[in-house]
Amino acid sequence: SAKMYMPGMAAAMETKGIWSCKMMGGFWNICDLQSEMMGKPFLGHEIQGYDLRRKKITATWIDTMGDWTMPMEGTASADGKTITMWGKGFNMAGKMSSYKTVGNWFDDDHFSWKMWEIPAGKKPMQLVEVTYVRRK
Fold it and tell me: Could you read off the pLDDT of 10-47 as tens digits, one per residue?
């Protein structure tokens, strides 16, 4: 399930979706999201992996809400259960902004992911909170 927080809206929009991932070449995790946003289909695609040369986790995200890519990079916690990523991309107003994401693995079947926009000179605004449960 996902909660989307939009500026000016009193309550978060909630939706459900399907997130599927597969490994490519032992380096890259390729993931696709099928969901709905504001009554319309929402599709997202992410490529994520560990860049041995930069010693960073890297990712690129695209979706059906925008005509731009969001490159991100970050690190994992010592226990490998939390990944924090940072990137820059366009916001819904078409202005460049900074973003932070945090993914947490609770066990093999439960994962959460949160995203914040960090506008220049302003405090972070949470945009998304997603809870994943592996389908059995």
Answer: 778 888 888 888 999 988 999 999 988 878 898 999 99
Q: Are the CB atoms for 106 and 96 separated by under 8 Å?
A: no
Q: Identify whether the C-beta of residue 123 lies closer than 8 Å to the C-beta of residue 117.
A: no
Distance CA 116, CA 125 (A): 5
Q: Name the nearest CA neighbour of 30 among 50, 14, 49.
A: 49
Lay out the sheet containing 2-4: strands in order across: 13-15, 2-4, 125-133, 110-118, 96-107, 82-90, 70-76, 56-63, 40-51, 28-37, 18-24
Both tokens of residue 75?
A: 């690190």
pLDDT score, position 129: 87
Q: What is the pLDDT of residue 120?
A: 85
In whole angstroms, what is the distance from residue 102 CA to residue 85 CA? 7
The C-alpha atoms of residue 64 and residue 56 are separated, in whole angstroms, by: 27
Residue of 50, 53, 119 lying closest to 85 (CA atoms): 50
Which of 53, 68, 59 has the alpha carbon at shortest distance from 115?
59
